[in-house]
Design goal:
The chain has 357 residues and is mainly α. It has 15 helices and no strands. It starts with 11 loop residues before the first helix and ends in a 7-residue tail after the last helix.
């Protein structure tokens, strides 16, 4: 993993690709997040989705612009800008842990997907994801984000095809309210929307902080943040429509989006299985990159060594299982992320006239 900055800075396409790729994880692509956070409110879930989408665009643009302004090279630097001490140190420790947890969850998800598709040991899927993640991290930062942008673009196309291809089924059935087992999701749709936006943005803080010193133009940062937020909102709408089209039976499925894709044909279902695995990969790369960069800057060591360390350390944690890790860690990330965003807004108001040192 190279840490030297790209000669001409990172453009909006690669930045937006990194943003979208860091959010398109297992929960998003599977449809489980959307069932838990949005469809439990029926048609009002689309209002919740709109609130979350606004958070993605506004906070995405603002955090990227802030990372550029202060030329941050890890989330530690960005947290020192948006939170006073000792809270910055506390959030640093928490976000480092959550980046590590996200990496482990994506590796565990790959194991679960491999087992679901082949019936083979989940260990093989975990091992494959660890190798694929480490391989991407060994590229130069600009090359890594270029590859990530291409992969993310392919995922977007398949997500849109499955999501909006399910629209006739969804319109025919209507948007019904479902009951989920996720009792940690708030009972009001505005609160659920804010928690959903917060937990996803908490993980992007780690990525944004690591990329700040590679962004040379504020305009690129803002456009990438807004563009990434809009893309995520459109994709979320597609996933929401697709999951709604397979209710009520889809509520009992581990991966309801696979059921929706299956209604469009075997080819669509196979392609979507690939999307889920790739979504796990891009999120794993984002989390591992942010954490490895944090460690390499803190210790002054090799980025490659840090990448190997974090990927290797996540391997045994991933063996604890996908559903167990998701159910325990995702709510915590959301509440910590909400606190981080609130403090960031208050800090921005108090430092609005201040110039970076």
């Amino acid at each position: 993993m190279a840490t030297d900055r790209a000669p001409k800075g990172l453009d909006r396409v690669r930045l937006a690709g990194a943003y979208v790729g860091s959010v398109l994880g297992a929960g998003f692509a599977s449809g489980q997040e959307h069932a838990a956070f949005f469809l439990k409110f029926g048609a009002e879930g689309f209002l919740a989705l709109g609130v979350a989408g606004l958070m993605f665009a506004v906070f995405g643009a603002w955090l990227l612009a802030l990372a550029h302004r202060y030329q941050t090279c890890s989330h530690t630097h960005l947290l020192e800008v948006i939170a006073p001490q000792p809270l910055a140190t506390l959030f640093d420790a928490l976000l480092s842990f959550f980046a590590f947890a996200s990496l482990a969850v994506m590796m565990a998800g790959a194991g679960a997907l491999y087992h679901a598709l082949t019936g083979g040991p989940a260990l093989y899927g975990v091992f494959a994801m660890a190798g694929a993640t480490l391989g991407m991290l060994l590229l130069r930062i600009d090359r890594m984000l270029q590859v990530n942008a291409v992969i993310t673009a392919a995922m977007i196309l398949v997500l849109l095809a499955v999501g909006f291809g399910s629209l006739p089924h969804a319109l025919g059935k209507g948007i019904g309210q479902i009951t989920t087992a996720s009792n940690w999701v708030p009972e009001s749709w505005p609160a659920a929307a804010m928690l959903y936006g917060s937990y996803n943005l908490a993980l992007t803080v780690a990525m944004f902080g690591a990329l700040g010193c590679d962004i040379q133009e504020r305009r690129e940062a803002v456009i990438a943040g807004v563009g990434g937020g809009v893309i995520l909102t459109v994709l979320s709408a597609g996933v929401l429509i697709a999951v709604a089209s397979v209710l009520p039976e889809g509520a009992r499925e581990e991966i309801p989006m696979l059921l929706a894709a299956g209604r469009l044909g075997r080819t669509a279902q196979t392609a979507y299985a690939g999307v889920i695995g790739t979504a796990m990969w891009t999120t794993a790369v984002a989390s591992a990159y942010a954490l490895a960069r944090r460690l390499s800057f803190a210790g002054g060591g090799s980025g490659h060594r840090a990448a190997l360390l974090v990927t290797g350390a996540a391997f045994p944690v991933a063996l604890l299982g996908f559903s167990r890790l998701v159910g325990t860690l995702y709510p915590l990330i959301g509440y910590v992320g909400a606190g981080c965003l609130i403090l960031a807004g208050a800090r921005a108001l108090s430092r609005s006239g201040e110039r970076p040192s």
